[in-house]
Design goal:
Elements: H1 2-9, E1 22-29, E2 33-39, E3 45-51, H2 58-62, H3 65-73, E4 82-88, E5 93-99, E6 103-104, H4 105-109, H5 118-137, E7 140-142, E8 150-152, E9 159-161, E10 168-170, E11 176-178, E12 184-186
Antiparallel strand pairs: 1-2, 2-3, 3-5, 4-5, 6-8, 7-10, 8-9, 11-12
């Protein structure tokens, strides 16, 4: 009896082992986190989203909307891949290890003298719609879609939509408009 009680009271741990990495630089900073460049043991680079808040337990980490949303949405070709959730109880630090993208759409278009090619804009728009459709079908609504949150690997390849704390909310009967073929789209489209 005592062994089963002790097992039930142990803190929740990650489903897979935490990835090890070395920090190589800083990419940016926001209100709730900073984004660092990390290098994995195999030499590939990753993005490390280091949360500024301290976390008391794995349970608190697992309750974060961002963690829950990315676990639910991955894998998808147009949503940033979360490779690992790294939590250190000694320092109370939380790092979300994700695939590294080169830039966001805002960085891609700012200061340009010429418009992006129409076919590229169509491709980006189509990929954004696929990502949002996947989110909505999985009961998640992204509340902060903007150029800074649309990440691209390079000029002509696919992009991913990123996630930040507070951007996701459970999808509770979004207002929708009926579309031919039975598809419902949020009225904001």
């Amino acid at each position: 009896m005592a062994a089963s009680n002790a097992k039930a009271q142990q803190p929740a741990k990650p489903a897979k082992p935490m990835l090890q990495y070395e920090i190589r630089g800083k990419k940016g900073e926001g209100t709730f986190s900073e984004v660092l460049t990390g290098e994995l043991p195999d030499g590939t680079f990753c993005a490390v989203k280091r949360m500024k808040a301290e976390f008391k337990s794995w349970e608190q980490v697992n309750q974060l909307r961002e963690v829950q949303a990315l676990r639910r949405l991955n894998p998808h070709p147009n949503i940033i891949d979360m490779l690992s959730v790294n939590y250190d109880p000694a320092t109370r630090r939380l790092d979300l290890v994700c695939e590294l993208m080169e830039m966001n759409i805002y960085e891609r278009i700012k200061g340009r003298k010429h418009h992006l090619p129409e076919e590229l804009v169509k491709s980006y728009t189509f990929q954004l719609c696929k990502a949002l459709d996947h989110m909505h079908r999985n009961g998640i609504f992204h509340r902060d879609v903007k150029p800074e949150n649309v990440l691209i690997r390079d000029e002509f390849s696919s992009w991913r939509i990123s996630a930040h704390a507070g951007e996701f909310t459970p999808n509770r009967r979004l207002p929708s408009t009926s579309r031919p073929g039975g598809t419902a789209l949020p009225s904001a489209f």
